[in-house]
Each structure stands twice: as structure tokens, then as C-alpha cells.
Amino acid sequence: MNTIGKRFRVTTFGESHGNGIGCVIDGIPAGLFIDVEFLQNELNRRRGGQNLYSTQRKEDDKIEILSGVFEGFSTGSPIGMFIANKNTKSSDYDDIKDIFRPSHADFTYFYKYGIRDYRGGGRSSARESVARVASGAIAKLLLKEFNITTKSGIYQIGEVKASNIDFDFARQSEIFSLDKEVESAQKELVKKAKESHDSIGGVALICANNVPLGLGEPLYYKLDSAIGEAMLGLNGVKAVEIGSGVESSTKLGSQNNDYISKNGFMSNNSGGILGGISNGDEIYLKVHFKPTPSIFRTQKSIDKNNNEIELRLKGRHDPCIAIRGSVVAESLLSIIIADALLLNTTSKIEYLKKIYI
Amino acid sequence: MNTIGKRFRVTTFGESHGNGIGCVIDGIPAGLFIDVEFLQNELNRRRGGQNLYSTQRKEDDKIEILSGVFEGFSTGSPIGMFIANKNTKSSDYDDIKDIFRPSHADFTYFYKYGIRDYRGGGRSSARESVARVASGAIAKLLLKEFNITTKSGIYQIGEVKASNIDFDFARQSEIFSLDKEVESAQKELVKKAKESHDSIGGVALICANNVPLGLGEPLYYKLDSAIGEAMLGLNGVKAVEIGSGVESSTKLGSQNNDYISKNGFMSNNSGGILGGISNGDEIYLKVHFKPTPSIFRTQKSIDKNNNEIELRLKGRHDPCIAIRGSVVAESLLSIIIADALLLNTTSKIEYLKKIYI
Amino acid sequence: MNTIGKRFRVTTFGESHGNGIGCVIDGIPAGLFIDVEFLQNELNRRRGGQNLYSTQRKEDDKIEILSGVFEGFSTGSPIGMFIANKNTKSSDYDDIKDIFRPSHADFTYFYKYGIRDYRGGGRSSARESVARVASGAIAKLLLKEFNITTKSGIYQIGEVKASNIDFDFARQSEIFSLDKEVESAQKELVKKAKESHDSIGGVALICANNVPLGLGEPLYYKLDSAIGEAMLGLNGVKAVEIGSGVESSTKLGSQNNDYISKNGFMSNNSGGILGGISNGDEIYLKVHFKPTPSIFRTQKSIDKNNNEIELRLKGRHDPCIAIRGSVVAESLLSIIIADALLLNTTSKIEYLKKIYI
Amino acid sequence: MNTIGKRFRVTTFGESHGNGIGCVIDGIPAGLFIDVEFLQNELNRRRGGQNLYSTQRKEDDKIEILSGVFEGFSTGSPIGMFIANKNTKSSDYDDIKDIFRPSHADFTYFYKYGIRDYRGGGRSSARESVARVASGAIAKLLLKEFNITTKSGIYQIGEVKASNIDFDFARQSEIFSLDKEVESAQKELVKKAKESHDSIGGVALICANNVPLGLGEPLYYKLDSAIGEAMLGLNGVKAVEIGSGVESSTKLGSQNNDYISKNGFMSNNSGGILGGISNGDEIYLKVHFKPTPSIFRTQKSIDKNNNEIELRLKGRHDPCIAIRGSVVAESLLSIIIADALLLNTTSKIEYLKKIYI
User: Is ipTM strictly over 0.90?
Assistant: First the structure.
């Protein structure tokens, strides 16, 4: 069950403190130029260890392409990629090998599998998301051919929300803040949390533009459904909102409906999706991340033998997983849209005729 | 793509104004007693036409079992079920066959497929959810064997929220309200929306209890991920929250973490899921429904030839889809947990040995 | 696991002596004219009870379309179909409910599931193949749009082989014999087997013509691989040969290789498939059916309590399952090729550009 | 489509002359001891370059485990494995980059994808099968826990067949011959073919023992169906026979049926499978390999521009692919049975109760 996508299929493997993280992408049409520099840049956006708002684990995250590319182009064969782990400090985790960190996957992995790679959280670590970004980068290369773009940023930290959304600003902001005006207040919250050995939650805003009308497969692989699956599969995500999201549930139909003029939709509460299918408008969604569960304060927990303990963690962790998580969410959205683009090729006879006749 | 589940696999078919709605459930273990009366009762919970808070379309929703059951028990063969459409009034829809209802799937289906069954929304109608409830009822029968239960109710209508949650009360409430104290205020909002030819949004709360520790498949079919996929695949759902949900993004780690004592978790912000795997605690989630898009007020839209029009709908619609939607959401949660229960049987060698040795 | 195909997905349900046999076909492009008369004709080709070479069970096999078709055309929604069972004589099977017929699925179903619908073999009956033919007929309608055709006939009964292959003759032959010259000898063998309360094996030859170059997905859903899966999933099939088949294993490379001229392949030992991908030449294969296991002679077996018994069957059975099986095999080949046609739409960027740009 | 298996899922990647061949195995239960020495031994069985009956390409085929194993045991996370390519001589293939080798995948890959990695056949090379053997070795480790074994050998080369089957002898034979008496005659045929710059076909016999009664999923993932899919997906395989195979089609029911006594089946024409489900008896099958298409004689073909050419290949190839292919076929059978073992855990409620109650 380590696979996402139906036609653009990504399978990942690897653990936080093993050899590295890898992925296999199956279903990429032949003839796509695989721009390795672009892939590396995408990985760099997610990379930690760059500033005080992220983990201090410094990985160079150098991407290695193992297969599926010949003379620069995709061949139709699966693309294997690998990113080695270099900056592991497994000894940090010796203390926790017999105990369960609160609100962590330690507890559930141990009881599900009867065995647990405790080093850095093993497979459950956010380190795995490097493979999602690498795969998302390939998806972006495919989407680019059709002028489709995706973008992301931090909408909210704690209670501080963006109001003037600026995705260009977000790309340069150390915390990917979407609003120049609130960036420093948001940074302050992260810093304060970190200084008090705590962590803080946040919200990412993710968009896709120029998505062709008609993507999304009814009724059980709707575009919003697939997006929801992807986002809630991301570590620490506790809620997803499409379009007007939670607000829509408080509205009247006459307030929430998007009327249509000959120039298109007159509002976009739908978030670009109707009946699970893209309507040609901007797709946007909010992804809510809980605060990083690994905090450095004293916490109550138990060990494997059900003894109560007080624990104080070591290790290196992001004080706010929403920040780097926003890049991963953008990557996942790219994968879902690429998948929908491939799936939609068989929606009508007319399309098949364009290919075969 | 009309299938949900990996091992407990439900495939549905049928349209609002066609012969009926059917489903095939594949993967049900042999030897399960298929209690037809229970199935019918579940369908009755979702049935409309019962009171002024739901559609006036009256279907008897009689379930017919077509296969897979022998002398009352499942045989391991796929269970086919069918629910005939009887109370269709297709003429109500003649007026809209060339126009697009705002915030409806009309527009996207037409452009995706180049053809559209406009009668009652065709395949995109909430009528299809009767198959989800029928399948969910089979899932519940399976879960019962392991003492796992699911339940649901209306948490919020417009801005009116429940505070004293009472699932027993919800089962009797005409609007499935979870709180006796706010039921009449919630009803009033629905009634007012209806009287002004409008509709209103709402929020359902869904729970599962006694879910064994260890269900959910990392990392791309996490329990929360699968739940998110299912819920966002439900008509009109614009947001899903697991556990503390959107609130978690405003919290500090020290506030949001669930500490553990030898008697179990000391709080449940996780909503019973850690790292995508059930932790043995109650699973709970909130599902946000937008207001029904079909309202009876004048709206702006376009027709197939991109001419601007003003439309006034006819037809029969729920003034608040959250109400009956809550039953469907509960059914979907049952399916997802049943699927996870089946998937988990191969998680460790020890389980296989219990079966084969 | 009652599903075949990846993009043209057929799910079947139903048992020999239940309400009927049904199927759901998901993934059919919108805009295909669903010619119901053609579907019925296809079902009639497989129908038994017509002559002394097939079962005496007479079913009218009337097809009922439950969904997915609007004003004659496919809508992109799943097509549900149902064929009622009418001529069941379950009492024929009372005697065998506690015993296992030799070389039958009785034994394995009972031990796998702990329960068994013994009436007419339940789900394991060849009756289920009516759904394969119905689905195959839809596949044929799709293939026709691209001028692709499939055909079949009986190549061999016992040791009597066809030499002058004539598919047109086969369509009129009561035993679908491919060779006018040997038809009577083949008939004689079937008749003789039947008269001596026995049954006989046979071989079907199946072809597909005008299959576009390039269909088939490497490396684990190769066209031949998918064909093999489909054919060996058909009741009573014990061997499948693609192209030169078993003979190829006795040859030298210089004898078996197909040289290429500017006008195409100079021979066709490959059977139209190279590296799992169609090469534009005729696809052909042989499907070997064992003799019907249900014979009316005294046989040795056991009952549920492991007591040895001598049994003499009642019931109505084909004396040679290869005959009607050939039609089912042709249907399955149509499904596989339709699936490959849909899958291939994403094989290169160029195809996507034809659709989206 | 580079994945095989439903619950024991193997995804492979890599090309003949790229970095190497890799695979990801998903679905392995936690707690399995991963015996790396055993894995390496399995790879060594398939390894070429050892004697004059195989390719002269010498790869050390050293297995590298990238993930999913912790302190020697499987963790439930996907197992990534990689085998580097070291002994590539890509220059051998410069001459063929614009031409199509007869009976090779060159032609179909080029036209399907519009691009082709011509070096050593790229993805279509038998080199990929090293990943199948590595995955099969993991499957064997799982099967061992339940005392299930698989074995293989060469049954036939050209027209020379084994009669006294001896699997132990086959393991030591340079050509894996199953019969001491015919080994030298079989070797002679291979040698002669090789000396005349030709190649020769052959047949492998594959068995599985102690397979529990009840494995295999009806009706579209039957055990024989899944085996057929796997075997026909192997390079150069043109026919598969289960049990009495092609012979069964010439028999009467009274000859072919396997009677049952209280001690079990009295014959095994079924090859251990009834109705797609294992019956507890030995599973056996024959896999027919065509002669290697790469021969070193002058052949007629065309180039990319449809010019007729005469070609004489260089490169290193097996004179008889059946020999090493037999090991791969055995590996694939192991994967299919492991998959069936996992799938069967949900066949009856009773099994679930053993786990959960």
C-alpha cells in the first residue's frame, strides 16, 4: 500500500535512518524531457537545515535517477529515483526504542507490526516525503507541457492568517509565508514555540491553475476525493478544505453557489471542482497541519511494558511541520492532477479517435 | 472508477432516473449472516420523503439481493444488490437539459463526456448514495462480528452547533440532530431556508468505536487518508476534519499531543488515528456539507451555447444535504473500517500462522 | 477478485441457480452507440439448448441493460447488465450437496469457503460466462469503431484437427468447426462421447485482426500475459498457446524468427505480439479445454465426511465445453484488446497533445 | 504496469545497460527473517556467464537491500532491492540502434513509445528478470514458514524430453536438466545450435508442493489464471500448460477426471488446481520458451526508415533462454503462491476470528 495514483503511479520505499529514500514512477508517457536540474530545485525547496524554522538535520538530498530515462527523455519505462540518507544520527533515538512518543506513530507501528524501526521514526518519518517531492517534480514536468501549474504557501501559523495572498513572495520567504504583512508575526510564533521547546500548527494553501475542464473520475476517484486522500496521507494533516471548505457548511445555497456568465464562473466557492470534475477554474485547497508531535518538553507516556514514564526527547525536528509540508502538499497535488490528466484520455470516444484514426 | 475499497470492494452503478441503483460487493468473507431486515432498516434511515426536512421524492427503497448469499449466509462470491427507482418524475428536468445549474455537476459532466443524462442529475445524483448505504450495511454486519460500531449525527446547521452530543437522540431526531437542546433551532434554519426557496449547509459528526488497534495501511492508504477519500467523494462535501481537525493547526504541540497513561490515551485530539493507523481509541471526524446547490430562486447561468440565462429550477431536493448525507458518511466509514480490517490480516507473520498452522 | 481489466473493467456477479448473472462494465468511453441487438446476438451465439452438442438447459438469455446508457449511447457511467436465470432445475443437484464431483470445483470451494452453493455449481458454473460474453460484446462495439475484429472457432476435438481454417464456416457450424472437411468427424466424436455418458476435450482457435501496432503494457501486463490470464481463468482451460506456441519450443531461432520486409512481417510465429506489444500482424492463439468433468458414468469420490462413494451424476451438461467455450474465449480476447486500447492512450506525450492541445 | 501481485506486490524498474535493476516488494508481513545469503544464492542460480550454455555476460549480481528490513527482519515496510549492472558493453549495440532485430521487442517498443533504449534491449531485456528472482526469493522465504516449496528444471530441449524427472539432479545440472539420462543429448542440442550461430527452444517444468488447500481467488484471479499471466509475461514464453495441459484436450472425461479416495486424489491431471483453487495436491506446469531471437546468422529485417536490410548481430546472448528462464519461472510461481496465501486470509469469517478474537 505504498503506492499513490492509478495511471501516474508512485511507489515509495525507504526509512529515515536506512540507506535512503527511493521511488518508482510508473506510467509516465514516453518523450517527456526529464529536467534533472528542475528536479533538484524542487527537492531543495523542501530541504531542511537551511534556517532556524526547520529541522537541523542537513541532507544534501541529491537526486539519483536509476532508470527510465534515455538521452534525457522518458522512455515509457518506470523511472526509479533514489535519495541517499547521509546525515543520520541514530544514537539520538536509542532512548526511545522502548517507549512511545505521544501523538506519534511509534505506538501504532509497534502494535500493528510487532516490530519497529525506531531510528528517526523509521518509515513513518517525514523524511519519506522527499520521494513525494521528487515524484511531484516529475508530475510538474508533465503538467508544464500542458501549461498547468501548481503553487503553495503558508496561509496561517497559529492564529495568524494571511490576507493578501502572494505566491511569489511565498517562494522567497523562509517560512513560505503567503503574506508579506504577516510573515514576521508568523515567524515570531514559530520562533517562540521553538524557544519554549514546543511546536506549532499551521495551514498551507495550495493551488493549481490552467487545469483543463473535465479532469476527475466519478464517483469514487473524484478529483477532490483523490486530493483528500493524498493530503490526509501526509504526516500531521488533520483537515482538508476544498474551495470554500468549512465555511460552506454555514452558508445558504444562494450565498455559496457560483453563478455562471458567458465569461466563466462569477465566483469560485467550488474551488474549481464540481461533481468531482475540474471546471476549468482555479483549484484551491487548505491543508491543516497539527503541531509537530516531537517536542522537547517533559511529556507523559508509557513504555512497551505499559509502565508510565516521563520522557524528554532528543533529536532534530521542525518546530512547524506545515512549512516544509506545504511543498510536499503542492507536490502531491501535482501528482493527483497528472494522474487525472492521464485517466481522462479515455473519457470519450472522440479522444480515442484523435489518437487512433 | 466506480469502485471503493481494496479488499472490501464496492462497485456501484445506476442513475437517478434509470431503472435503479445497484452495487456489487466483492471480498466479503464467507460465513457472514446477511440480515436482510437490518439492511432494509439502514436504507430506511437514509430514505427521503419522510418529513419536511428532506426531498419529497418518495422511494420505497426496497433492497433486492441478486447474488452471493446462500441459505442466509455469504458464500465468498460477490454480493449483487439492486434498489429500483420508482418515484421518478423526469419531466421536471426537461427545462434544464440544455442549461447548467450553478454549482452542479451538469457543467462538468457535459464537457467531460460530451453527453449528459440530465434527468435528475443522472449518475451524479445523490440518489446513488443508496448503494453506499446498502454496502455500508453489509460492512456493519461484518464489523458487528468483531464488536465494532459506527454512528453519526448532525453536529451543526448553519452556525448552530451541538454541544451535548447524544447519538441516541440523533437516531430519533427528524434531522438527526446530536443535541436535544439545539435541535429546534437547527430545524428552524432548515425550514426557513426551505421556505425562502433556498438551502443551507451543515456538518455531520461520525464515530467508530471498538476499532482494534492496528488498522490502516501506511503510507498511502492510511486510515485517515482512506476516510478522507471516501468523505470527499460524497456529494457536496467540501471539508473533512479528523480528530481535533482545523483546530489542531492553531495549537502548540504541548496542547495538542495526547499523553498516554497505563490506562490508555489521556486525550483524543488524534481522533483515534496515529501515523495512519488506529490507536484503539474512538475514531471521530467531522464532514462539512455545502448547501444543496439546487435552489428554487432565480439564478444566473449559461446554456450549452454559452448564452446567459436566468433559471428557476423545478424538481424535488433536500433543503440540507448534510442531514441524509450523515447516514451515508457513516456507511462509508463502515466500509473503510471493514476494508482496513481485511487488509490488516497480513500485517504480520504471526497472523498468518494463526490461520495456516 | 471478480473483476477483469484495468481501464475496461468488468465485474461480474451471480450464480447458476440464483436470480441471474450480472455484470458492471466500468471505463467505457462516452459516446459509444450501444447496439442492443448486437449484444443479444452475441449472447445467442453462446446460448445452449439449441442442438445435441450442447447442454439441454434452455435459457432465453435476454439481456437487460440497467444503467450507463442514455438515448442509445454510453455516458461514461458504468454499464450494468443482467441476464435472469429461468430454466433452473435445482432438484437435480440435491444428491450432490454433500459429495464432491471429480475434477470439479465442488471440493475446493467447500474447503476454501466452508460453505458451498451446490445448485448447478453455484458461482463456479460455466453459466457465469454469459456475463463475459455480454461484456465482450460491449468490447466488440468499441473495437469496431477502430475497425478491429475478433473471431473464433473449434480447431480440434479429440485428435481431429482442422486444416483448412474457415472462420465464416465456423459461425454456421453447430459445433463452430473451423474446417468443413473435418466437421462431421468432430461431431461424431462429440456424439459418441455423449452417447457413452462421457465427455471430450477440444481446442479453440481465436484471432484478432487490425489490432493497431503498440497495444500491450510491459512488463507485467503484456498483451500475451493478459490474454493468458483471461483464458486460463475460463472454466476447463488447461493450456494456452500464443502464435507458434508449444511448437516454438522445439524450433531453432532461425526457424522460428519472423523476418521483416518493407511490406511487413514475412511469417507470424509471434502470433502478432512481440515483447508483450502488438506488432500490427494478426493475433492468434489456441485455447485447450479439458473434457467436461461432469460425466454420467459411475465415478469414485468422497463425501464431506471423507467417506468413499460411487456417484452417478444427474443434471444437464455440455458434452464438450470447448464448443461454447470458444465464443467466451473470443469475448475475453475482445475485452483484453479493448483494455489495451484504452491503456495505450497514455504511452506517449504526443498522444496527450492530440487530446489536450 | 510494472507490478505483479495483489497483496504480495512486486514493482520492478531498470534496464539492461542502465545503472541496474531494482524492485520494491510491498505487502510482506512483518516479522519475516530476511536471509540475505539465501537471496544471493537464488540470484546465483539464475546468473549467466558460468558455462557455455548461457550468455557470456558476467555480472556478479550482488544484491543490495535498500529498505524494509530492520535487525534482519521485515518490518511491514516495502523492501527495496537493487542489483547493479556492471558488465555492460553498450558499444555492441551501436549497430542496431536504427534497425529492428527479428522477433524482438525492438520494433514494438519503438513504435509504441517513439523512443527506444537500444542498449541491450533496454527494459525489454531478460536482464530485468534478476528482479523477479530476487522477489521470488523473498516469496520463498515466506512460503518456507508454511513448509511450501517450489522447484524447477528443464523438461525438454528441442525434441528431447525428460522421462525420469529428478529435481535434485536438475539443481546441479549445468542446463538444469531434469533427467540424467537425456542431459547430454539436451546439452548437445544447445551446443550445436550455439556453434551454428543459432538458438534453440525448450520447456521448463515447474512445481509447488505442500500448497494448502484453498488458495486462489475466483473467478478472475484464479490460481491458474494468475500463473498463466505470470508465465506468459516472461520473455520468450509462447505457451503454458497446467496439469495435463494440451493433452487434456484430446481426452475423454472418463480418462481425464481425477477420482478421489479417502486418502486424496487418485491422479493429478488437474495439476493441483480445481476451479482456480489449489486442491492440496502438487501444482505443476510446463512453460514453453521459444528459441532466443538474437542469433548470429544473417537475417532479413528493416530499419527505422523501412529500408530492407540484412543484419548480423553482435552481443552476448543465451543460446537457449529456457535454461535460465526456468529459474525465473520458479520464482514467479513462488510470488503467485505467496500472493494467494495472503489473499486467502480473508476468505472466511472463521479466519478473521482467529486473528481478532
Answer: yes
